[in-house]
Amino acid sequence: MKKIEAIIKPFKLDEVRDALNEVGLQGITVTEAKGFGRQKGHSEAHRGAEYIVDFLPKVKLEIICEDSQVENAVEAISAAARTGRIGDGKIFIIPVEEVIRIRTSEKGVAAI
User: Fold this and answer.
1) From 3.30.1300.10, 3.30.420.40, 1.10.3430.10, 3.30.70.120, which CATH number describes the 2-111 domain?
2) What's the farthest any 2 CA atoms get from each other in the chain?
3) Residue ranges of the chain whose pLDDT lies below 50
4) Helix (H) / strand (E) containing 32
């Protein structure tokens, strides 16, 4: 099993969720996040004063899936989240040792 973490632009969340649903992945955890990469924030003006916004709003997605589903999930996320501009995000793939469903004590793939 693998954990896929994706950092994307917030307005792309619905498109990514729909794309993941189309490839058969349903369970997803979404967290609001702030950060920056190469874009390093930007300047904004408010009431005549200019200030720098260091951290930009992002959304972090977490998905646990079988190894066989990873490639389809990554392709779905990449295609749906891509705008072609800087700051589209990143995808991280992390091995998962075990998954346990609290309610039923199921383990492994059955618990996903």
Assistant:
1) 3.30.70.120
2) 58
3) none
4) strand 29-35
